[in-house]
Design goal:
The chain is of the alpha/beta class. Helix content is 38%, strand content 16%. The chain binds S-adenosylmethionine.
Length: 233
């Protein structure tokens, strides 16, 4: 085995462990997370649609919040779901992964059809479901017998103001202590003509529901925001 191969094998066998930090803020070992993303995540999902900073936020929130269940929509190719799966595996977290996309006959510009879940459909640990994301996931979680449900939601379906507002509202009413991650939340001035619907939906929601703090990647598209209940953990 060549010297280079030995190094690569060593890296691939690398074990990632959770570091505990005292304090209430979302804090992770960013060096370890960066190493993990470069070695284990980028080779599988690349940097599209989630650039490095967003991959960091997805991974960090998962390992810090340690949910019992992650419900994400829409599945599309399953990139986000695969990020959650690889992270849970590498950091030895027992998390139920549920990913939802629209029914086959629903019209949507980004409907994946036969490509749905391509990156995760072979993984028995991932439950793929069809339907409206928020309705399907809440119905699924309500049927679970587990006493301590601690869900985390990842919203990446229809990025309109109306949809995100509805989805956050339903989650907030049903699971007020859940962490919520929303994609496509970058704010630009109106002359940019960007879709600022998700940003607006979040801003309005947290103005009325003060139990959340926001963690955001804020320096370009597409943008990602975590709504994290204060005092959680
Ligand atoms: C931008 S893609 C998501 C990318 C995906 N998260 C990934 O990691 O590859 C948007 C997806 O959301 C789906 N979608 C749109 N509205 C939805 C809804 N209400 N419920 C579930 N899925 C939805 C679309 O069919 C499409 O597959």
């Amino acid at each position: 085995m060549s010297f280079l191969n030995r190094i690569i094998r060593g890296y691939n066998a690398k074990h990632y462990s959770l570091k505990k930090f005292s304090g209430s803020e979302l804090e992770v070992d960013k060096w370890m997370i960066s190493d993990f993303i470069l070695r284990k995540i980028i080779p599988i999902v690349g940097v599209h649609p989630y650039p490095l900073s967003e991959l960091e936020l997805l991974v960090s929130t998962l390992i810090w919040y340690q949910p019992s269940h992650v419900c994400d929509w829409g599945t599309h190719l399953g990139k986000a779901t695969r990020v959650f799966y690889e992270t849970a595996k590498a950091f030895n977290l027992k998390i139920h992964l549920i990913s939802i996309d629209l029914l086959e006959d629903v019209e949507h510009a980004e409907h994946p059809h036969e490509k749905r879940g391509r990156l995760v459909r072979h993984l028995p640990e991932v439950k793929l479901m069809l339907g409206d994301g928020v309705t399907t996931s809440i119905n699924f979680l309500k049927k679970q017998k587990t006493a301590n449900i601690r869900p985390m939601f990842f919203l990446d379906g229809d990025h309109s103001y109306k949809s995100v507002k509805r989805e956050i509202g339903i989650i907030g009413r049903t699971y007020p202590r859940a962490a919520i991650i929303v994609h496509d939340t970058f704010y630009q001035s109106p002359d940019s003509k960007y879709n600022i619907g998700p940003h607006r939906a979040i801003a309005e929601y947290i103005a009325k529901h003060r139990q959340y703090k926001l963690i955001q990647t804020n320096f370009g598209l597409p943008g990602m925001t975590v709504l994290l209940p204060k005092y959680e953990k």
